[in-house]
Specification:
The protein is an alpha/beta fold and 288 residues long. It contains 11 helices and 8 strands. Strand 5, helix 9 (201-209) and strand 6 (214-218) form a beta-alpha-beta unit. The chain is globular and about 50 Å long. The relative contact order is 0.19. The model is unreliable at 283-288 (pLDDT under 50).
Amino acid sequence: MRIDLHTHSTASDGTDTPAELVANAAAAGLDVVALTDHDTVGGHAEATAALPEGLTLVTGAELSCRIDGISLHMLAYLFDPSEPELARERELVRDDRVPRAQAMVRTLQELDVPVTWEQVARIAGDGSVGRPHVATALVELGVVDTVSDAFTPAWLGNGGRAYADKHELDPFDAIRLVKAAGGVTVFAHPLAVKRGAVVPESVIARLAAAGLDGIEVDHMDHDEPTRARLRGLAAELGLLPTGSSDYHGSRKTVRLGEYTTDPEIYGEITRRATGAFPVPGAGGPVPA
């Protein structure tokens, strides 16, 4: 089985609609794909309705968190989307996205970058506006070559010149809320240092003690030594090591299924979840 547990659609900051994403996942030879848009479950219904034969959908979200002034992302899988406390926190984060993006635009203008809010809003379309949309505007203007180049201290990286804060969950609260909603948590790209500051391993150990289920090991922003380090840390802390593309469509160069999760790890994630269950397409694999 080929399993990709971290993708984005136009419901947040990807360029594929949810229906296009599941079609492209099947075409890429995936057996399982997780739709984990930022702080929203808005794409799940469309993805489920369009799910092709042979592909299983894992519903999820990527939650925006912050601790000690450092932003981090928590992947939440197979939680009950109607659980009120978690739904309220997701709404608070989403509501803060527009003023945050507008603040970044104003700062960029002060840095003599001719970006406009109208440009960013056009790029975001109906999606939940975020930094990748601002980064895409910088690519359109020729300020940077790629979206990834915008996620640096020089521009939009955590703590960067044009970075702006938004409402973010405490990661310990995120773990508690997701567990209360029957879900499973995995710390996304925990050592992606080129994005900005990352939390120390001592914080990962504290999150593990608080109930964190796993850490994303195989990711485009982790080099081989970092992956080896994270794999050892996962073994030491009893965390599930996952691998994922963090696919954003044409917004990034990574391909669907470029990094994948071991089927045994996927099986353990599904066994731990009680809030929701993977959705098989007609004839799709059903996890043990």
